[in-house]
Amino acid sequence: MTKPTNTYTSRQGDTLSKIAYEYYGSSTGQVERILEANPKLCQQPPILPAGIIIVLPDSEPASTQTTLPPTLNLWD
Hints:
Blueprint: E1 6-9, H1 16-24, H2 30-37, E2 53-56
């Protein structure tokens, strides 16, 4: 039995960053994952036309997601 695939149909004005943020809660690293799952998307303009079906990979487990280093404050 295959795992169901999550898909999204683009709407006028969508960008990959916007879709990633809405679906995953963050676009950090997710845009790249969407592009890996949809190699032909790189041929589209940055603002996607309506009607493109995009495969959305499952979210990575928290342990494998990239974490950012703590913020360094130069001034108090």
